[in-house]
Design goal:
single chain; 122 residues; mainly alpha
Length: 122
C-alpha cells in the first residue's frame, strides 16, 4: 500500500475506522429519534398521524439499517488496509482488532435495534 515504513499509517487507518464508528452511531441515533418522533405524533392524536407514523418508522428504520451496514463496511475496509501494511508499519503487541471490535458491537446492536423496532411496530 505504501512505502512510508511508518507506524503512523496504522494509526491513521484506525482513526478513520473510529470516525466511521462515530458516524454510524450518530446515524443510528438519528434514525431512532426519527422513528420515535412518529410515535410521539401518533400519541398526540393528530389526524394524519397514521401515515406520518408509517413514514417516520420507515425512514428511521432505513437510517438504522444503513448505519449498521456502513459500520460493517468500515470493518471490511479497515481489514483491507491492514493486509497491505508492511511489518515496519505495524507495532508488535498492538491490539489492531480493538477498533474493529468496537465497530462490530455497533453492527450487532444496530441490527438488534432494527429487529426490536420491527417487532414492536403495530
Amino acid at each position: 500500500m505504501s512505502d512510508l515504513k511508518d507506524p503512523r499509517v496504522l494509526f491513521a487507518a484506525e482513526r478513520t475506522l473510529l470516525a466511521w464508528n462515530r458516524t454510524s452511531v450518530s446515524l443510528i441515533t438519528l434514525g431512532f429519534v426519527v422513528e420515535r418522533f412518529g410515535l410521539f405524533i401518533h400519541q398526540l392524536g393528530y389526524a394524519a398521524a397514521n401515515s406520518q407514523r408509517d413514514l417516520s418508522f420507515s425512514i428511521g428504520l432505513a437510517l438504522i439499517v444503513f448505519a449498521s451496514l456502513l459500520s460493517m463496511a468500515s470493518i471490511i475496509q479497515y481489514r483491507r488496509v491492514l493486509k497491505n501494511l508492511t511489518v515496519a508499519e505495524t507495532i508488535p503487541g498492538y491490539w489492531i482488532w480493538s477498533g474493529a471490535l468496537a465497530n462490530l458491537v455497533v453492527v450487532v446492536l444496530g441490527f438488534g435495534l432494527a429487529v426490536y423496532l420491527i417487532r414492536g411496530f403495530n
